[in-house]
Amino acid sequence: MYNRLMPRKKKNSQDIVSLIGEVVDQKIIEHQLVTRKDLKYLPTIKHVDKIMGELKTVREEITIIADMKRQVNDHENRLEKIEGKLDLQPAI
């Protein structure tokens, strides 16, 4: 049912909604609450997955490099023994 008071009721409803929005905004600021807008700056699952993949790759590379270093040290020790037994001067 339509009457001449309808526009006024609609305006009052809009005013109430506007007032509620302002109060909510004030409370968010006052209590430093996190909003959806704040969350957009956080990393997403895709970003975390990418970072975890890179971390896994780095760890694998570190393992490979550590093994290579061990092999080089073993070879150096073997060469020193051979040089000592053959009475050779160490190569620089």
Structural write-up:
- The chain has helices spanning 6-31, 36-39, 45-86.
- With 92 residues, the chain is mainly alpha-helical.
- It has a domain at 25-85.
- It is rod-shaped.
Write the layout of secondary structure elements.
Layout lengths: L5 H26 L4 H4 L5 H42 L6
- Give the helix proportion (percent range): over 70%
Largest sheet: none
Number of helices: 3
Query: What proportion of the residues form beta strands (DSSP E)?
Result: under 5%
Please tell me what the overall shape is: rod-shaped
Number of strands: 0
End-to-end gap: 102 Å
**Unreliable residue runs:** none
Compute the average pLDDT. 85
One letter per element, helices H and strands E, the order comes to HHH
- Rg, please? 36 Å
Computed structural class = mainly alpha
